Amino acid sequence: MDNKAESVGAGIGRIPSGCSILTVQHAGQATGMLVSWVQQAAFAPPSISVGVKRGRPAAGLIDGSGRFVLNVVGEDPKPMFKRFGKGFSLEEDAFAGLTIEASEFGPIIPECIAQLGCRVMEKVAVGDHDIYFAEVVAARGNAAVKPYVHIRSNGLSY
How far apart are CA 158 and CA 156, in angstroms? Predict the structure, then answer.
């Protein structure tokens, strides 16, 4: 094995992931962001892990509310990537013109193929990201539509 940065980046980039839109609301503010570092973390209780780059506006809302929604992106990711790929400040309306539904966990995006209502169990700092471990306490999904699968050419940057 080669420990050069380009080899490490190429190897990490081969780890497939999906993409989701993490939505959150707290204290009258709401936002959404594109996330790709999501993984099932446990069966009992059913749990996931999600990586959020430190300093993202959504992180403060997650920390404050202790909840979020993971809206899983389907095979055609372009509309969600175009909308959420750049990120939003808390002053911007991340959902303007988009149909959303309210939930106790945060905004639900019905056009996504699954929605997971999550309650944060633990937050762990790892490098330049925080990893949230969350119990999935509510969900719905469309099993007839396949999820988008994402593979990077380089696992050392977005």
Answer: 7
Considering its fold, how many domains does the chain have in total? 1
E strands within 4-103? Answer: 20-26, 29-35, 38-42, 47-53, 67-72
d(CA 109, CA 101) in angstroms, rounded, equals 7
Kindly report the pTM of this predicted structure. 0.95
Residue 47 lies in a domain: yes
CATH number at residue 109: 2.30.110.10
Provide CB contacts within 8 A for 98, sequence distance 6+: 83, 109
pLDDT digits (tens, 9 = 90+) for 36-73: 999 999 999 999 999 999 999 999 999 999 999 999 99
List the domain range (segments joined by +) for residue 110: 21-138
